[in-house]
Automatic annotation (TrEMBL):
This is NAD(P)-binding protein. InterPro entries: NAD(P)-bd_dom_sf, NmrA-like, NmrA/Isoflavone_reductase-like. GO terms for molecular function: oxidoreductase activity. Residues 10-148 form the NmrA-like domain. It comes from Coniophora puteana (strain RWD-64-598) (Brown rot fungus).
Amino acid sequence: MSNATYTSFAIFGAGGQIGKFITEALVAKGANILILTRPSSKTSAAPGTQLERVDYTDVGAVAAAFKKHRVEVVVSAVGLEPQALDSQETIARAAAQAGVQLFVPSEYGNPTYGAKEGLWGKKSRVVELLKELKMPFLCLYAGVFTEYLPGLLCVDSGKCLIAGEGKTPFSTTSMSEIGGYLAFVLTTLPPSQLSDRFLRIEGDRGSLHDFAVRLFADKVPVVEHVAVLPAASAPHAEFLAFLHREFDSGSGDSRWDCVSGKRIEGAEGNHNALWEGHKWRDAREVLGL
């Protein structure tokens, strides 16, 4: 494997929330960027990028786009919708067919590799497929997006609502830092340090109760523990309650290993230092509080 750093990237889901930050960060690095989108999409090429419209279900068409643009790394930033997650299987097969050198599946949140069920299970199965295809992969776990903390705690309801104990610390990182970190390691580190690797980062950490008090006590002084998050107070209440339970179990920590059911200690539990010279921002700074 060559130690020359990567310069050519294809991004799926570039118009999504995390995808925008990843794209902007790679553009800032001067990388060659191909944006792939569905034929029906109205997306236009962002400055510093090229765009191809392809049928995500057509392995041959996607592989041809990769070959045409000499793509070295495929970055998936698709959302949590089941159909979007399922599309990664076609993308992975196309990447293998085209000789792509590295695949970055859509992770960026809580650790999922080793999960068996639900959305996390779908994410885990993508990595299993990459292994079967002998496609080198890089997974990045960063915990909850810091920008989501107000919604996670239902601040707009007039109270901070917690479904469960809310006492176990979890990881949180801003979307801009996730994008910046990924762009930095992909364009700076040699491929040998990125292949078949799980990177774990965090900008801040705390429990739901800790963040409620630390960030929102002035605005929302009441912290209420509930058995069920009311739909009227919490959009996507069922998913938020699922995350609250995940945090209570410890699996919201970016150091969590789903396979062993334990927290990874030591240097392999956190890779913040790979982004040399970066000053990580805590939640208060990210949210402008």
